[in-house]
């Protein structure tokens, strides 16, 4: 039995309001590809930030070989031979490929000059190995996203790495590029490098990893040999038994069509979208990131102008030019990016919740604060929002409570159509099932609900019907009786695409 | 991708196209409107133009690297004035009385050192406190200006050293001393920004600070060095200018920061950092000076110059935005 | 949890720090010179701060909405020159509204460029600083502007008059501060200004018309500038073209000293008033204890940096920045 090359032992990390990591351990052997899995918000990225020295743990330790090390920052991580391949591209677009790959360690000549010839030589050697179609001097800003990802990956090959962390590296890669990536990983593995591989794609996990460690809600769920595991057991570990994900079908009567979309297109983002949502119905939109789901929601909410097609509300064709327009017509959007789009983090809970209707809540020229507090209290109780009081800054709440504030904000507007984009991203299981129940409950009350989600169990659980999208088009619409996981996966991968063929 | 490259090329070449346009316009308009007989494109006139660009130009080169780095420096005008006073005042200090003309390099060195230290102080504060550079240097603008007044109250500080004046007014190969300094500084900083590790890291920090931090680049020292450089260049600008004029008012250099930033932005440097070039700034400086002289040539007064420069700055911004819009698919925020 | 309470203590310090500093200054100056705390002296300080203060009120809105305004100084020169010129041409009754309209038009232009065209406010207002300065010089032909009959006009009331024993500039400043303080803290518009500055994207996603909010902030700022120009013109009844030059940065200093963040979303009218008064009292106090006016520049420098440093340090819970 070899010793682990890298070991995280009993890591604890607490943020105000959340226990992000609770006694999490992970060890990587030399020459091993170790998958780190878990749902969004399970603590994977926090754990990696602890490893990278960007967060200091409140407990536990990091060991390289037998030595305990204190990760004071990125420099420390690098000095220990730990390399991160980020999912969110951390590249400087105005610099060349070579400069990005060797960022922070450009080869020097006298007088602090960059040794360009050595830089180009080393870079081109790496690029050749990666078999990419650009050279060292290309500006990163001129590359496609996939090629930028390859630049990011090239960084792993520059230093004498002991451990490399790949965070969702294939998210934007084509199949051919994936093959190259897996070759790179195989080479690193052969050199005895320890690899942590973070991905949601089961297929890849089972193809290239040796062991799988699963996190859930910041807690360590266990480590299994990939060879002895299957998709079902891993999914079970990720989701746990706590979450009720049984199928739902409407037991109540559906009302009229609340919103109808016909032939809606928006340039290259999505084309010829047709669907309708009845009152009392939850329609789930499922697909890969970039399939065009969020863009449709943004169009319905007045944030994008469609290039063709029409939107009908209660049978009337409407043009929606702005969010204010959309809100006036009874459309609400709980956006995907809670912190960036949903909330003003520096404002208190009450002010965030009443923001869309602040013009209507007036006592003379002033905001009627009493009415605001009444609204806040009502939805705090209805949604069980846990906060010390309305004066609390939203930034201090946990993810789940923040999301409930956003949902409360829109429910208090009594919308006809409620669009919810990634309703449970980054929130704990308890809040997840509450939000699922809430969405079902809203449908029962007669709301028309559009749910966009990248988590299949969630879509299956909350939806009456499921729209499967691939590359800007609707592939198929399923009723909850007929849908199976296989057929859904096929539809969103573009397989069985009858129309495109 | 093609459209992006076209707009990039347009942007990079734009300042030189603009200069060309100015030259043509003022030459032609000058034929009809000018009160003087001499042509606008006269060689002496152009050489004088370069010389007059030097004080703002030298500082603008420094501002370019600070802005590429993602910061800004509003205190350059005050630093300029302090360095000028140190230069002129120190030449009269009794301890240097025995040096004769050797006092010149000593005073130069003193002035440059003071400028560098003041710049470095700004950098150190930005680094260690984490307060935004805009605020730190806004404060320093007041603070350094206060120090200027402390020297001599509201009175001007004067000292003419004729050796120095001769040097400053000299022309080597027909080019004035200040112009040589401007060219030398431009070349040196161009070298730093395109050829050295420090320069490339400065770009990386301004472009994507998080990426730079993740890559282990030490952001603080780089920022401080750049602030020290702009302090040095503000002092150098003063040293070059006041060697000739020999008298400094405590209000000298006021609003320089605004002129300098205008030149840098016209030259294509991004206000948010990460992109820009020293050569572009050089073009921006020339363009502004051409405008001043050209408008003067056709009989317009300073008021028109201010108006036109302001409007051009805004027009450039609008144009830049139009070129960067991605069309109808963009999210309407 | 220990870090949390530490942060809370820090944030209380940061919130009240400026008031504590203000109180300490007042005590120190009062001990240094008995004249400092006399009614006459206090009035004279507030009166001389009124012009800066009125401008700072408007800039507070702009800064909270997440933008900058560097053009207020040259805009104030413009209003002063215009109202003085028109006074003799069309009489004060018409001159004042005409000047307000012209200044508001300039503010509206900036608001359009920054709000609707989404241009960088720093550069736009920098350009406008230069352009408006040029406009003023063109308007005046580079000449100083004077009212012909300085004794016979009631126009001097805004700058020199008193009502109920209180100088009119103080009344204007106080009245405007109270009004705008209410607007910012209590009205839907004020709420939107905070939302737009705090997170413009989230504000848009909440149906707030961001461009309109920013536009309105610049209009309000221009209105304040016009008022300041009116006081200035009325006080001196004659003026140079450059009367407001450099004020933009002093105004910004006062607003920042009051604790508004340049990132937007925070600050209050009350705090800005405190910021203005601190600058005024420092100047006055230093003069009274026999120091030259320029010493206040240096003191202001130190205070601004300490104040903002305290603020950011409290927010991150650490004194020194984590920048490597």
From TrEMBL, chain A:
Looking at the record, the residues that make up the ABC transporter domain are 6-242, 252-496
Keywords from UniProt, A to Z, are: ATP-binding, Cell membrane, Membrane, Nucleotide-binding, Repeat, Sugar transport, Translocase, Transport
Q: Which domain of life is it from?
A: Bacteria
> Can the keyword ATP-binding be found in this entry's annotation?
yes
Is Cytoplasm found in the keyword set? no
One Pfam family, short name? ABC_tran
Q: Which PANTHER family match?
A: CARBOHYDRATE TRANSPORT ATP-BINDING PROTEIN MG119-RELATED (PTHR43790), D-ALLOSE IMPORT ATP-BINDING PROTEIN ALSA-RELATED (PTHR43790:SF3)
Q: Please report the name of this protein according to its UniProt entry.
A: ABC-type sugar transport system ATPase subunit
TrEMBL record, chain B:
Bilayer topology reads: Multi-pass membrane protein
Q: What does this protein do?
A: Part of the ABC transporter complex LsrABCD involved in autoinducer 2 (AI-2) import. Probably responsible for the translocation of the substrate across the membrane.
Q: How does it assemble?
A: The complex is composed of two ATP-binding proteins (LsrA), two transmembrane proteins (LsrC and LsrD) and a solute-binding protein (LsrB).
Q: Which residue ranges does UniProt annotate as crossing the membrane?
A: 12-33, 53-69, 76-96, 102-121, 133-152, 172-193, 224-243, 258-291, 298-319
Which keywords, in A-to-Z order, does the entry hold? Cell inner membrane, Cell membrane, Membrane, Transmembrane, Transmembrane helix, Transport
Keyword check for Phosphoprotein: no
Q: What is its main location?
A: membrane
- CDD domains the UniProt entry points to: TM_PBP1_transp_AraH_like
- Compartments where located: Cell membrane
Q: What is this protein called?
A: Autoinducer 2 import system permease protein LsrD
UniProtKB/TrEMBL annotation, chain C:
Its localization reads: Cell membrane
Q: Name one Pfam family in it.
A: BPD_transp_2
Could you name the domain of life of the organism this protein comes from?
A: Bacteria
Note the InterPro entries from the entry: ABC_transp_permease
Per UniProt, which keywords does this protein have?
Cell inner membrane, Cell membrane, Membrane, Transmembrane, Transmembrane helix, Transport
Its taxonomic path starts at: Bacteria, Pseudomonadati, Pseudomonadota, Alphaproteobacteria, Rhodobacterales
What name does this protein carry?
Ribose/xylose/arabinose/galactoside ABC-type transport system permease subunit
What does the record say about its membrane topology?
Multi-pass membrane protein
Q: Where are the transmembrane segments?
A: 12-32, 44-63, 93-115, 122-142, 162-185, 213-231, 251-279, 286-310
